[in-house]
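QA checklist item 7 of 12: single-chain prediction sanity check.
[x] sequence parsed
[x] length recorded as 158
[x] structure emitted
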Amino acid sequence: MAKFTKKKKFAAIATAVVVVGTGGAAYAYWTNSGSGSGTAGTGTNAAVTVVQTSSIAGMYPGEGTRALSGNFNNPNAGNTYVTAVTATGYTIDATHVTAGCTVAQGNYTLGGTSNTPGDVAGGNGVGAWSGLTVQMNNLGTNQDACKGATLTITYASS
């Protein structure tokens, strides 16, 4: 049997401590894979309101066209894209309709082509449109029933 000296005993104990210490620091783990899913949604937008800002007064039979223009009220938080604005029709105030100024007579004409507004920011009084017109036609007959009439023009945007 070999005789151990103090140095050899110390070296053997130190080696044992290192081996045990290293073994104690080792860890085991499993690898894994998996799958899953989640969702994301998009919102919708509310319609913009077309607002006429041009003031038209004093039209008379046979006068040339008058320019219509305006902006938008966009209730959405972000931009909304507007391709065009159209004047889809008009009504005449009840007092003048009763007096004989009616839409069916063709006293007025809406026309023109709107510019392309594009992106309209959220908020009121934003963006701009123009290019539409209104005109009082000369029918060659008495149009006194339309004196002082107020037209309400209906607009649509797309």
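[x] summary fact logged: The beta strands are 49-52, 66-74, 80-82, 85-92, 108-112, 118-120, 123-136, 151-157.
[ ] second reviewer sign-off
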